[in-house]
Structures are given as structure tokens and as C-alpha cells.
Amino acid sequence: MPRPAGRLDATVFGTDFFSYLAQHPELSADFHAAMSQAVSGAATALPYAFDFGRFGTVTDVGGGSGTLLAGVLDAHPGLTGTVLDTTEGLAEAPKTLERHGLHGRCSLSSTPAPR
């Protein structure tokens, strides 16, 4: 059977994935919570597996709650960082930054969802 042309998310959801999430806040919250949980182990290990200290600033593209970048900044006090994600994706990031005491070292930047 031939595969349909185009993006699978548009075929399944009738729109791109992030637009679908924006239309379904409960699913969006679940998706972003799952992404945060999935990255929690990496947030503990990655900061020591790579020499982030040689940089002045690190940007986590699609960083959601900021969990991964918080781990990196905790391990490298000389760094600053930016979490870049959609507005919905960043919903929990201020709490993460507060919990880690990173408000002065980490900024948040939102971008429209990809189309």
C-alpha cells in the first residue's frame, strides 16, 4: 500500500502537531509533562558528559520546562542560558528556574510553533 504524501501529523490530526496541541490544552499539558519527565535523567548526566564550561551561553532549543538546561547551569555556575520553545512549552519553565535559583542566569524565549 502506498504511503500518503505529506506530513504524517497533518494526515493524522488534520493540522501540524503543535497546532493540534494548542487546540487541546489537556493533551498539551500531558505532552510537555512527559517530555520533562523523559529528559530528567539526561539533566543529571549530560552536564558532566560534555564540557559546557567552555561556552558562555547555552541555548536549549525545544527546552520546554527548562529541566535539561537547569541541570547544565547547576553544574556550570559560570554559564548563562536560554530556553527556547513555544509559549505552551515554556509554561512550567518559570517554576523550574525558581526551584533551581536560576532567574538571573537563564532567560525564556518563545517562538511560534513550526508549520
Mind explaining what this structure looks like?
Residues 11-98 form the O-methyltransferase C-terminal domain. Keywords: Methyltransferase, S-adenosyl-L-methionine, Transferase. GO terms for molecular function: O-methyltransferase activity. This is O-methyltransferase C-terminal domain-containing protein. By secondary structure, the protein is α/β, with parallel strands linked by helices. The protein has a single domain, classed as Vaccinia Virus protein VP39 (Rossmann fold), CATH 3.40.50.150. It contains five helices and three strands. The chain has helices spanning 8-13, 17-23, 25-49, 67-75, 93-100, and strands at residues 57-61, 80-85, 106-110. Helix 4 links the parallel strand 1 and strand 2 (80-85). The mean pLDDT is 88.
